[in-house]
Amino acid sequence: MSSLNPTIERVTQRIIEKSKDSRRAYLDLIDREADNQPERSAVSCSNLAHAFAGALEDQEALKTNAGPNIGIVSAYNDMLSAHQPYGRYPERLKIYAREVGATAQVAGGTPAMCDGVTQGETGMELSLFSRDVIALSTGVALSHAMYDGMLLLGICDKIVPGLLMGALRFGHLPAVFVPSGPMPSGVSNKEKQRVRQLYAEGKATRAELLESELGSYHSPGTCTFYGTANSNQMMMELMGLHIPGAAFFQPGTKIRQALDRAAVHRVAAMTKNGNDYRPLGHCVDEKAIVNAAVGLLATGGSTNHAIHIPAFARAAGVQIDWTDLSELSSAVPLLARVYPNGSGDVNHFHDAGGMGFVIRELLGARLAHADVIGVGEERGMAQYGQEPWLDEDTLDWRDTGPSGDDEMLRPASDPFQPDGGMRLVQGNLGRACFKSSAVERERWTIEAPCRVFQTQGAVNEAFKQGELDKDVVVVVRFQGPRANGMPELHKLTPALGVLQDRGYRVALVTDGRMSGASGKVPCAIHCSPEALGGGPLSLLEDGDVVKVCAETGELSTTADLSARTPAPDPVPDMGTGRELFAMMRAQADEAEKGGSAMLAVAGL
Hints:
8-stranded mixed beta sheet; alpha/beta; Glucose Oxidase, domain 1; single chain; globular; 2 domains
């Protein structure tokens, strides 16, 4: 048996070393919490009466402390298609808990906002900080000392990272994430992209655009492109926090219900008073974090996780940065091409072998840690390299076999490209992320005069006026966490795509985020330090030559910035509740650390 890939081993050891103090402090915390958590029988009768009053048929079991009590934290709402299925989950999860002598209560709910709904709207400026709110809401839900384990119900962009960040502060409890699965495939992603670009050029009507979008997003379940939401599910698999193989079975299917049932049974079996205690804080260690990053790189996942991985890692006392991600990317081959990096969606990916195939290949090539604890019946990652199936009504696992579509999924011995395609670019304009897996190699280097903007609306207006019909690096600044909450700039994708299709050499440089579903156009995103407060992007002027190069890892300008005065910081806008988040903007740290106000103030 060969040893772990040397690059994976080296980066892991570096993360362990630099996390030594913070990880020790974290483990000490959760060990104290485990020791200090009172038995329910020792809690005040008045407290217990408040907690049990609404428990109906579970009241007697709770009163007699008959078995573990599981706290359900749900991100249910019926405006998000991905979260709509969760509406009926609590009643089912409670039944599954009773099957093994446990009880379950809905501990609390968290917000669940959709970047797809807020794209280009003012509400997007609340998006990144909704992750902190979700973490805080999770903490409030779990603050009642009534629970022996956690079931975490969430899927989409900031929701899974936020749930994990909050749950990790109660890391003495075991936890299982419970996904609900993707919606069936609709209008092809290629067709959707075609209509979007036609609309951007004025060649399709709004009615035609809406019809196309409704054909794609059409029923309960997660959106089927491989953006941040589905990347979340991939990472939970690589970290061992799902029942093995749970990520991409569709809602309402028998196997989805069997996986949900297994999640409840497993969390009940992993509690402190059993013989298989697996606290979340010990499951999420340095190796699990590296596995999450490796999975992101191997599947061409969302760039948003260059922010989310450092944030939830910090909540567990683990320090990881973009240098680590970029170095891991150099060793991890690209095994999957899922839209926007390919033509098929996550349903096609799942049907071709999905997560079981990817994990088996990564483990076989010694590119992932096999000894992550996980929540499967067997400790470690081996079961995650298989696929679940129903043998009559019994849930079981089997080998995934070869790829069912080599245009979608390839073995580690014959990847789409030898590296994971997420690169660090840096220079006199700061540090940024470049997702090379989504961009044709001949566009990995763009050097051109820049046009500087402060809103994506201004970019689209310049596009409509023909001002960008040339080789150009579009710079959109004052979009960082402290400036306006770091919104995604997805509205830029159609216009920049059209310019590229017209034959121009085009790139985007921004301190904002780009959608997890972005692709095609070379982008240096999440620039740190951000423009607010005098960052390098605040010194650029129209016409300065800017170079973005994924080959050499360069982000620079030939202009002499040393004598320039920074552009004035914009005054934050009010409305849509944005003023309520002023304290978060003021306290947020840089994107490379996760762009979190909560973690920065907590000193984590």
